[in-house]
Design goal:
Helix content is about 15%, strand content about 45%. The protein is an alpha+beta fold and about 260 residues long. The mean pLDDT is about 90.
Length: about 260
């Protein structure tokens, strides 16, 4: 029903840095963070306003050497079918579909240009939750509000995701020397944008978390050891954005009004 909707955000950070990440993001977004209680694997769950909004974990051993990063997951009707389709569309399956007890079935994939993402087939829920619920809610602070892809070929990437998730091409914004910022929609609502690599060394997805005041978020983030990479900048619609690298090297952005309201 919600195939193609952003549904989860997951931080993989350096070994031994999870307590620092918990403290940083907890203070920045007001998240309450607790251990998920998984056997043989430390995984922390962040919640806000009664919603589970993100996961935080140390970098898996099979990803040793990978810089810390935020991964975006998308809801799918069938994780196995989605993984198979990614292969036929020229993408890569990094982790074959597997079950998460009590949650659903997931897989880790990448598009043909190399940007990694996850898919999650949630366990059936009755009643079905609202479209904007859980980690993704464009009306709430401290939830996922926007997603952005930096790619070597954003046009081909959008064709790939349109075929995989049913996304549709929306407004194209001319950014001058930076090229075109192509918005895309899911279920009739704009949920993100795609662009060239810009300053990113590799293709990647970037999550934007909502904040009630970008200026105060900048103060909290930089005070907690993050580096402000860009912003604050006003974007169409009157919101402001800022782009950060946390103390371990994971990149993320915030979006909201410039000052607290």
């Amino acid at each position: 029903m919600y195939h193609g909707k952003p549904c989860w955000f997951e931080l993989s950070t350096d070994k031994g840095a999870l307590p620092q990440a918990d403290q940083f993001y907890g203070k920045l977004f007001g998240w309450s963070i607790a251990d998920a209680g998984m056997d043989g694997f430390t995984y922390h769950l962040a919640s806000h306003g009664g919603d589970m909004v993100a996961g935080l974990a140390e970098m898996p051993d099979d990803c040793a050497g990978t810089p810390p990063f935020w991964m975006v997951y998308f809801d799918v009707d069938d994780a196995d079918a989605a993984a198979a389709k990614v292969k036929t569309l020229g993408g890569t399956v990094f982790r074959e579909p597997a079950d998460i007890p009590g949650t659903g079935r997931f897989a880790i994939l990448s598009d043909p240009q190399g940007a990694a993402f996850g898919v999650l087939q949630p366990l059936p829920m009755e009643p079905q939750p609202p479209v904007e619920s859980g980690a993704w809610n464009q009306r709430k602070e401290s939830h996922g509000n926007w997603i952005e892809l930096m790619s070597t070929d954003p046009k081909a990437a959008l064709d790939f995701y349109a075929e995989l998730f049913g996304w549709t091409r929306s407004t194209a914004v001319d950014m001058g020397e930076m090229g075109t910022y192509q918005l895309f929609s899911w279920n009739g609502a704009d949920i993100g944008g795609m662009m060239g690599l810009g300053n990113s060394p590799v293709p990647c997805w970037l999550p934007y978390f909502g904040v009630n005041g970008v200026d105060s978020a900048i103060t909290r983030a930089t005070g907690g050891g993050a580096t402000l990479m860009h912003g604050p900048v006003e974007v169409p619609g009157g919101a402001f954005i800022a782009f950060f690298r946390d103390a371990q090297g994971a990149h993320f952005s915030v979006v909201g009004p410039k000052e607290d309201v």
